[in-house]
Amino acid sequence: xxxxxxxxxxxxxxxxxxxxxxxxxxxxxxxxxxxxxxxxxxxxxxxxxxxxxxxxxxxxxxxxxxxxxxxxxxxxxxxxxxxxxxxxxxxxxxxxxxxxxxxxxxxxxxxxxxxxxxxxxxxxxxxxxxxxxxxxxxxxxxxxxxxxxxxxxxxxxxxxxxxxxxxxxxxxxxxxxxxxxxxxxxxxxxxxxxxxxxxxxxxxxxxxx
Length: 209
Description:
The chain is α+β, with helices and mostly antiparallel strands. It has helices spanning 2-21, 26-48, 51-66, 82-89; strands spanning 71-80, 100-109, 112-113, 118-128, 138-148, 151-163, 166-175, 183-193, 196-206. Helix 2 packs antiparallel against helix 3 (51-66).
């Protein structure tokens, strides 16, 4: 009976802690997440008599700190006309029957950041339409998906923008949250129009503070 009660404790502790976070701001939640993670991991490890399980629980909890990341600034611009885009990538609008998109490059800069630093994320992509629609703006969805060690951290978007045929640069600036767990993060750059979508990945490293 005592063992059963002990194994219920982690769930109760986590629920109580999360309930307390409900009334906090995003920044406060991130801080509370990081402070509470060690405690949650320790409680789970104690109750299960497994350091490995406790570490896993604490690690999953730490992901909440990374989830505080958000887009602080966004701008976009057309980087290539549709004729320049055709010449650069070797296609013809005359061969296109419906709008499609293609991510040409996705970057995250600088490659190594620390808590409090700014990260610039750029998605360069092509909008390809039938030739008679080249001057018409169409709705394009832009999404950034952040993950670490194969685990989804946060989805930013989709952001819907009106685009004409050609090349586009979508630039987002993010601030690395305080005490964001160190390690390598992957960003999935995704653009979508209608049923057509394209994806490319970039990565960056958060160095220990």
